[in-house]
Write a structure and sequence with these properties.
Elements lengths: L10 E3 L3 E10 L2 E8 L4 E7 L7 H13 L8 E7 L9 E7 L6 H8 L5 H20 L14 E3 L5 E3 L5 H8 L5 H5 L19 H17 L9 H7 L5 E2 L2 H7 L5 H11 L10 H13 L5 H32 L13 H5 L5 H7 L11 H4 L17 E2 L1
Parallel strand pairs: 1-5
Antiparallel strand pairs: 2-3, 3-4, 4-6, 5-6, 7-8, 9-10
The structure holds adenosine-5'-triphosphate and magnesium ion.
Keywords: ATP-binding, Kinase, Nucleotide-binding, Receptor, Serine/threonine-protein kinase, Transferase
Pfam families: Pkinase (PF00069)
InterPro entries: Kinase-like_dom_sf, Prot_kinase_dom, Protein_kinase_ATP_BS, Ser/Thr_kinase_AS, Ser/Thr_Kinases-Pseudokinases
């Protein structure tokens, strides 16, 4: 599949975008949701922290990404140049992408506090494989190099699209330079192949396949690999052969179609030697077969999860309305209170110092779970989520 070259990316300016809301932030900078008023749809805008002189090559790369299209890979719609609300006087650059209403696989895992129902787990595994296979089939192949749950976006019906593919190689200079060491790794390190810790590392398709194997483990268990280990230990132990534990998955496999197959696939993907790992084509051929076994139950599984997500959203809206109501009936015009806490807040028993902090106006996060709700799991999903905390497996 060849990409045609294009000279000019579609430029999207301030005038086209309205209703900016912060939805997240990562190594590249802040991500906003905004409405493109001519296209009549929401878009996601990923702003770059700053231009260190390499942004132009980054944008060329983006334009290349824009040429290929797959239902399992995020569509880059253009390049933003302008001044988003409450930014400084200088124009900023960013990527404009389709907006994915259900956030990321990472946020889904947080909400579920575990793994999704099996049919959905198998579909996630397959669709992510399809996305990787698409990138690897391009000429020249596009390596993702940062496969992890926060780079798997979900549409309204929980179908996946990969994002941030091909950007990892820019990430050190453009993005990570401003971050502290602990932040820098941001979960990425657990998905990195053993060869990536070598000074002479040169990434290949097999690097993505390793990360895909770890991602499969995370989907099936609903957990983050090596969640309790220090990153310095992870760096040391991965090249020595440690991998996430399979014990809990094994204990679920009996009598359940496809689990052993999926487990075998993840083990092949995280082989120490890159040339022993399967190709993305082999992976998708396999996941297609596995998903077929569960496809008949996919609608029920998706419906079950969506109902819970919507219910949670309603509860959080109701919470907000409740707090708004308390403020409104107080009779205190908050705007006219120059300093200090409004007296009514002292009287309302439910107000805590924390809730006051949350009420300080801040940019709205459109598709993120608020920290206060993050701790509430919407359900302990059926089979996959019942596995206990993973450890290391020698
Ligand atoms: N196209 C999109 N549609 C909807 N939400 C998005 C989109 N792109 C990003 N987001 C949101 O923005 C958040 C931040 O994304 P970002 O890629 O910047 O950070 P990250 O993936 O957590 O870290 P990293 O910088 O390592 O990729 C995501 O977690 C997601 O909630
Ligand atoms: Mg990302």
């Amino acid at each position: 599949m060849a990409l045609s070259s294009s000279i000019h990316p579609i430029l999207i300016e301030d005038a086209n975008l309205e209703n900016w809301k912060v939805i997240g932030s990562g190594g590249f900078g802040q991500v906003y949701k905004a409405r493109h008023h001519k296209w009549c749809c929401d878009v996601a805008v990923k702003l770059l922290h700053y231009d260190d002189g390499r942004s132009s090559s980054l944008l060329r790369e983006v334009e290349m990404m824009r040429q290929g299209s797959s239902p399992y890979v995020i569509q880059v719609l253009g390049v933003f140049k302008g001044r988003p609300p409450s930014s400084g006087p200088s124009a900023q650059l960013g990527l404009v992408m389709e907006f994915m209403e259900r956030g990321t696989l990472a946020s889904l895992q947080d909400s579920l506090c575990g793994a999704p129902p099996w049919p959905l787990a198998f579909r996630l595994a397959h669709q992510i494989g399809l996305g990787v296979n698409f990138l690897h089939s391009l000429t020249p192949a596009l390596l993702h190099l940062d496969l992890k749950p926060s780079n798997v976006l979900l549409d309204w019906y929980l179908n996946t699209k990969l994002t941030d593919f091909g950007l990892a190689r820019f990430s050190y200079s453009v993005t990570r330079a401003s971050k502290k060491d602990s932040e820098e790794e941001g979960g990425t390190i657990s998905y990195m192949p053993p060869e990536a810790f070598d000074l002479s590392y040169s990434p290949t398709r097999a690097s993505d396949i390793y990360s895909y194997g770890i991602l499969l483990w995370s989907i099936v268990t609903g957990k983050q690999p090596y969640a309790n280990a220090l990153s310095s230990i992870v760096r040391l132990r991965i090249p020595q052969g440690d991998r996430p534990s399979l014990e809990e998955i094994r204990s679920q496999a009996a009598g359940r179609a496809g689990i052993t197959g999926l487990m075998e696939l993840m083990v092949r993907c995280w082989e120490a030697k890159p040339d022993k790992r399967p190709s993305s084509f082999e992976c998708t051929t396999m996941t297609e077969e596995l998903y077929k076994m569960h496809k008949h139950a996919i609608n029920d599984a998706v419906h079950q999860v969506l109902k819970k997500l919507d219910q949670k959203e309603e509860e959080s809206l109701a919470e907000h309305v409740e707090r708004f109501h308390i403020t409104q009936t107080s009779g205190v015009n908050i705007k006219n209170v120059p300093t200090g806490r409004p007296p009514i807040q002292e009287m309302a028993g439910s107000w805590t110092s924390n809730s006051r902090v949350k009420d300080v106006p801040s940019p709205q996060r459109a598709n993120e779970v608020a920290p206060s709700q993050n701790s509430k799991c919407i359900f302990k999903a059926s089979a996959p989520s019942s596995v206990s905390a993973p450890g290391f497996q020698p």
